[in-house]
Amino acid sequence: MTTSTSFRPVIAIHGGAGTITRASITPAQQQAYREALRDVLHGAQQKLAAGAPAEEVAVEAVRLLEECPLFNAGRGAVFTADATHEMDACVMRGRDLACGSLAGVSTVRNPVRAALALMAAGGPVFMIGEAAEQFAAKEGCEMVARDWFSTEQRLAQLRTVQAAALASGREQVALDHTAQSQTPAAPLDERKKMGTVGAVVLDVHGHLAAATSTGGLTNKKPGRVGDSPVVGAGTYAKNAVVAVSCTGVGEAFIRGSAAHTVAARVELLGESVAQATAEVIHRVLPPLGGDGGLIAVGADGEVSLCFNSEGMYRGQIGMDGEALVAIYANDALAPA
Amino acid sequence: MTTSTSFRPVIAIHGGAGTITRASITPAQQQAYREALRDVLHGAQQKLAAGAPAEEVAVEAVRLLEECPLFNAGRGAVFTADATHEMDACVMRGRDLACGSLAGVSTVRNPVRAALALMAAGGPVFMIGEAAEQFAAKEGCEMVARDWFSTEQRLAQLRTVQAAALASGREQVALDHTAQSQTPAAPLDERKKMGTVGAVVLDVHGHLAAATSTGGLTNKKPGRVGDSPVVGAGTYAKNAVVAVSCTGVGEAFIRGSAAHTVAARVELLGESVAQATAEVIHRVLPPLGGDGGLIAVGADGEVSLCFNSEGMYRGQIGMDGEALVAIYANDALAPA
Prior knowledge:
homodimer, nine-stranded mixed sheet
């Protein structure tokens, strides 16, 4: 235990949770994910060590995750049922509860940077669709063509899910993490993965921040928004309390006010970050169908990487610069 | 005090909070608002008395508020800076935390009914833009032309705000509740009103629900989403805890997770509904610029109509069918 005057600056990240088992991944694929997580942590840690504010560190970590096609955000985002991409992102600064959320953007290279620009602008905190894209462009965010986010693997996933839905006679579903068939082209069965990336940070000044970004769910209905951009559901940060970023079945995380419930338990009940996150992930969310996980960091640097699914891509790094990563449930954090 | 086995079914509604003073309203205008609130309460109370579930009663109250051009939701919604209408709505059912949220819809006659249809469909809980409208149409919600929501008074308000912004040299602002000039055509200085309507209900079965609907802010940026459709910010309901619907500066209510903070304080700290709502409205939100108010009802039927602005259109009705309404701060609830 540490006191409130003693804290350990730290970054924690996630790259999505879901049905990720050793049986479903080759050793080479596993290693590629571990190294990707490690590289993201190293990249963001440079900002942490240089004294950057928590929200900038969190956004840098998420930007690097967006840039990596292995993760379902930014480039490598999954396709909607209409074979389009719709991305959501959010950032929240614990110091003053400033936040910025975007939903349904298709042409912003790094949605999380547009969310940061929205937060910095000090006006609306939540913008959607084309208007959000116009805002991002005006703020100087890099804009790209709609197909920039597409990868062949993701398109193959969509076609597989759609074919399976057609064969089963069910309506094509937005969330199909129970689908059984494997996509040969995908390094993982990504249809079983709740695709979201996120970061939580306690910076050297003792400030907290959280950021989350998502490409949604393979074959989701266009226009569907999950928990990621919903402050208090998928993302939340409050100084002296906790910073939280979630990944999972977005509907359940919205219904359960997942991120804010963690914060409320820490703030109002005095629970530890470990206690509060376990309560939400293992007791609040499961009755709502809330498969998934979250990452959280408290005011003293206590980190929780907590999930009720079979795996969650995750990692953390402190001031010593040693990146620790893990994938499965029974998988101790270790260097990549 | 009542015990949990003794509860009084009740409906509470709001029609927006803001700078509403006796000096700014003629007696005739005041009376029109009081009677409108009364009629909405009477309309919804029929469903309450007939044993309808809380979410249906709340949606009916909000639908009636949407239909009334005096209030900023549905017909009579304010104009965006582009002279369009963009509406958001949300409903949440306390029994199972089911919810439905829509943002940025322009052709659904009653956005709150579309939110109910979304909740009932059991898939996505949050949809935006055209896709949300397509969903509503498919579900049989009544669709209307975009100009159906327009009224001459609202257009006059927009032109006045835009002219004032031009004259002042400031960029036209999304939220201009500090504007000084009066719109002669408007019965109230609606630019100073946080335009949202909402209802909270404890039904005869002891279940809670909340619903909120909004036309946004006069001259707001298109694409801006406020707190109304954000579960945990503008709307929240959980059985045995509380149902909450907010109205105010949406950005602050999102940053403060206003509705869920009320619920967390009731659930985790055991505060009364009066205590929890006062804490949020008078302590949590003001430092965030959170002018506005909320209505809440607890599991025993304890109602709080709480605001930090100069007035809030509000009312409540129980099983006895007596509608009580009020507008100003120093304005006791009374029959219209």
